[in-house]
Design brief:
Layout: E1 2-7, H1 15-27, E2 35-38, H2 42-46, E3 50-52, H3 60-67, H4 89-100, E4 103-110, H5 112-127, E5 133-138, H6 154-172, E6 179-185, H7 192-195, E7 210-212, H8 220-231, E8 236-242, H9 268-280, E9 283-288, H10 292-295, H11 302-320, E10 326-334, E11 339-346, H12 371-377, E12 389-390, E13 393-394
Parallel strand pairs: 1-2, 1-4, 4-5, 5-10, 6-8, 6-9, 7-8
Antiparallel strand pairs: 2-3, 10-11, 12-13
Helix pairs in contact: 1-3, 1-11
Length: 405
């Protein structure tokens, strides 16, 4: 039998490690011949655009280099499968491609929306007696996938964000004048990544002095009062905000949505910057970390990269054991020592659902997080990879551009 692996949704710096985990597990498994990579997620299956990964990942050095490479080496997509009862054409194209290449297992690496693809495909295959197993491998820096303790990609993003905020704190504190720095961090509905900035407290840093999450009840009037209160304590005030917090005036939102109906977000930091400038007249700046949060592999979490590898390998084992329509997830056994287990759950428990940051971990005034969050986040950002460098910069694995078209 042959297997196929696809990557979907927003990139992370751990998604390629899951690809390597699945690939290496397949290599050592008797009975698996070819390991195909699908170009641009499910679109590659639909268009019969597959490559034999053995022709590109040839050595252990290649695998190690790929593990330290950010983004999706096979390309990605945001393609929403239609309801098969309404339009089954695309499903027939997918099954024709899988049969053509003798593929009996498809591993789909992605987030909430990608698990929708896993669920729909596995249901269709079972209903039509297709001999193929569909397994979802989680990834998202948003950490909002249900059931799993955390998602591959999140730990590295959290480590980058926390490190960057700690450095911003150093930069903002050098002048004698009062200042406010507002850092806008990814998180449409769930504030996990913004909340993770609290870990710099363990290095003796008091900032961020205010943390605002989508799960809280934000009001601009209260925000002004919060800033006034904290300015009395801190000359250089640093604030972390999730991009998805709802402002009283949301006029900067474009109103545009992606294929899954999610709004495109940005600009909340700039709005708050203008508000603070108007109300206080002090030095103020906003910083939007943007895509650096998901592509900064130079400061990735070794724990994250290692776990991403292991969950990719576990996905192959689940498929070979006959499982289908499943999502592989992490179950945390303990914080100290940090121990997790990898198990599978029905994709219906993860598809199109979001895991919010626990409200009981938010302080009563809604402006910060408590020590429960610290205990949760700290294990996920531990460890540093020794990166292969070239000309003073990290080296990355590449597939020729013409192959990815």
């Amino acid at each position: 039998m042959n297997i196929a692996i696809a990557q979907s949704g927003g990139p992370t710096c751990a998604i390629n490690s899951s690809l390597v985990g699945a690939f290496s597990e397949a290599l050592k498994t008797p009975g698996i011949d070819a390991v195909f990579g699908s170009i641009n997620g499910i679109e590659g299956i639909i268009k019969n655009n597959l490559i034999d990964l053995k022709n590109f990942i040839r050595t252990n050095d290649d695998m190690e280099l790929l593990k330290q490479t950010p983004s999706t080496v096979l390309g990605s997509c945001r393609y929403k499968l239609p309801d098969p009862d309404t339009d089954s054409t695309v499903y027939e194209q997918i099954m024709n491609c899988l049969r053509k290449h003798d593929i009996h297992a498809l591993l789909y690496i992605g987030g909430n929306d990608s698990m929708d693809t896993v669920l729909k495909l596995s249901d269709y295959a079972q209903k039509h007696n297709e001999d193929v197993r569909i397994i979802g491998i989680p990834k998202t820096i948003d950490n909002d996938l249900c059931v799993t303790d955390h998602t591959p990609g999140f730990g590295s993003a959290a480590k980058y964000v926390a490190t960057t905020v700690q450095e911003i704190v150093c930069d903002s504190s050098v002048y004698s004048v009062e200042s406010v720095t507002i850092i806008e961090i990814m998180g449409r509905h769930a504030g996990w990544l913004t909340a993770s900035t609290c870990v710099i407290r363990t290095n003796g840093v008091s900032a961020p002095h205010l943390i605002y999450l989508p799960e809280g009840n934000f009001s601009t009037a209260q925000f002004i009062e919060d800033v006034k209160r904290e300015q009395a304590k801190h000359k250089a005030l640093v604030i972390a905000v999730s991009e998805g917090i709802e402002l009283d005036d949301d006029s900067c939102r474009s109103g545009m949505v992606d294929n899954f109906g999610h709004k495109y977000l940005s600009g909340v930091g700039k709005q708050l910057e203008n508000l603070v400038r108007d109300k206080f007249g002090c030095k103020v700046r906003s910083i939007e970390l943007n895509v650096m949060q998901r592509c900064s592999s130079h400061i990735c979490s070794k724990t994250d990269i290692d776990e991403a590898f292991e969950i990719g390998a576990a996905g192959v084992r689940a498929a070979l054991a006959g499982e289908t329509g499943k999502t592989m997830v992490f179950k945390r056994i303990s914080d100290v020592p940090y121990i997790i287990d990898i198990v599978s759950v029905p994709a219906s428990e993860t598809a199109n659902k979001e895991k919010m940051f626990p409200k009981e971990w938010i302080t009563p005034d809604g402006t910060n997080v408590n020590d429960n969050a610290l205990r949760y986040f700290l294990p996920l950002i531990q460890g540093e990879n020794v990166l292969r460098m070239r000309n003073g910069m990290p080296e990355h694995f590449k597939i020729k551009e013409e192959v990815l078209k």
